[in-house]
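Sample intake sheet
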Amino acid sequence: MPTYTRPGVAAAARLAALNGPSRLDIWERIEASYDDMILEKGGDKLVKLDKFCSGLAKKISSSDEPAITKEELLKVVDWKFTKGKPRYALMNRLKSNQNVEECSRVAFVESEKGNVQEAINALCTLNGVGPATASAVL
């Protein structure tokens, strides 16, 4: 097995490599403890942001013309930073975007067509958005 430098990556790789009937049971136990893990990781702030992102996903999936606002993008990024490694230097770049709704609309159309790379590319045209943030939005 390769050596990983980021915490948790080696454990995630071992988990993903599991085979057999016990695999489903393990994933069900992990999913059942998700809320507790989120609370432990980031406290009430992360719990609220996680609920916001879940609600945003429902809003997007039920919309005829899905898009997100700049404020919603900033909250998704705050969720991502609170959950993982923050890169606060990006916040000013993210706040400078004026065309978030337009770019996200294009991204969601491409995603719906199955063009994941084009969807990610559309979001990556936004200042401060890279593939990881684009994936979090999608």
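Comment: Residues 122 and 129 are 10 Å apart (CA to CA). The chain has eight helices and no strands.
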